[in-house]
Amino acid sequence: MVRFFRNLWYPMTLHAPTLQSLDLKGKTALVRVDFNVPRDKSGNITDDTRIRAAIPTLEALLRAGARPVCLTHLGRPDGEVHEDARVDAIGVRLGELMGRTILKLDESTGPAVRAAIHAAPQDQIVLLENVRFHPGETKGDPALARAFADLGDVFVNDAFGASHRAHASVSGIAAYLPSAAGLLLEAEVQAFDRVLNQPARPFVAILGGAKVSDKLSVIENLLDKVDALLVGGGMAYTFLAAQGHSVGKSLVELDRLDTCKQALAKAAAKGVQLMLPSDHVVADRFAADAHAEVCGIDIPADRMALDIGPKTQARYAEAIEAAHTVVWNGPMGVFEMEAFRAGTAAVGHALGRAQGYTVVGGGDSVAAIALLGLESAVDHISTGGGASLELLEGKVLPGIAALGQVH
Ligand code: ADP
Ligand code: MG
Description:
The chain contains 16 helices and 15 strands. By secondary structure, the chain is of the alpha/beta class. It has 2 domains: about 20-185 and about 395-400, Rossmann fold (3-Layer(aba) Sandwich); about 200-375, Phosphoglycerate kinase, N-terminal domain (Rossmann fold, 3-Layer(aba) Sandwich). A 6-stranded parallel beta sheet has the order 3-4-2-1-5-6. Strands 9-8-7-13-14-15 form a 6-stranded parallel beta sheet, sandwiched between helices. A 3-stranded antiparallel beta sheet has the order 11-10-12. The protein is elongated, with a radius of gyration of 23 Å. The two termini are about 40 Å apart. The model is unreliable at about 1-10 (pLDDT under 50). The structure holds adenosine-5'-diphosphate and magnesium ion.
């Protein structure tokens, strides 16, 4: 009975209106993109993945006859104009990648901006200045959202990586204009809807990363959905400590022992297989050149576990390969150091061999996939670390929920 009511309350699907729902011909489309690219000290773009990721949506808008006007944030200028946070270099790179000239404007609201947009040819891509130069952006100020909305006819959110933020340019504009998800956001929504709301079973989740405390809500939410939960990374040692194992100098959050016990009890009550490491790669210190060795489930007092051991790797790989749906967040060890990368690599390769649908989310997890060259082995690699984590927590993302309110 309780279950029945819970199912009524849970959103059954994750949904967003698509570009097809918008009337685009001859219109000006405000597109919230995530061009918050990493840069070096001189401001040079060191990775343009996020710029590339928005191009399909911009091309689709041009094909449909819309004039795309891009809004993005860059860094944290905290509501003030910071010269080094201007987005000019992004406009140049976008132009190079698309083989077009981009019209970059030095502001992002106001009559002059509006006039410049509307004086431009219909097939001109426009890039507005960093939206976080406005103090109202991160506050979600409706007046700022309205000022953005005044610049165009329709709104497209393609910034999945910012969609967990209730910021003016992310979730505010959709109150004033017809709106939809761009292609990138649509792919993210579909992937997470498939794993969270309609998973083919068995459904296996792999959770790792540094701390249990970062992932408590994810554990809680996924225990209601999965058939097996494979735990690795630093967070595994708080679980093992909660079971009474010695964990040596490994990362442990003593204030989370009870939470881990509750999660173990919940898993047992629900018949979810919660798998923990049974062997480890340990070292005497946290360093790339530390001496690494394998030990059994109990960790010697003077050692810290920095990766899952070979037996655990084999058990986890077997469970992953047999799964029909797999979602992975958080590395299995300190993959940044080669000596402690094997566990993360084993899980990554198992995902590649799995017959089922596979999704990876999380900033470091995606970095690990890239480092291991496993991009093509996974069905969906999420472009948003924080946003994907919030979806796994079962949260509704403001930038998605806001879409489609105006027709
Ligand atoms: P994601 O960004 O994918 O969500 P997290 O940020 O939660 O992942 O965790 C990634 C970090 O966890 C990595 O920097 C990795 O080095 C660290 N980590 C993994 N295993 C351990 C461990 N056994 N001890 C300490 N840190 C670990
Ligand atoms: Mg991280």
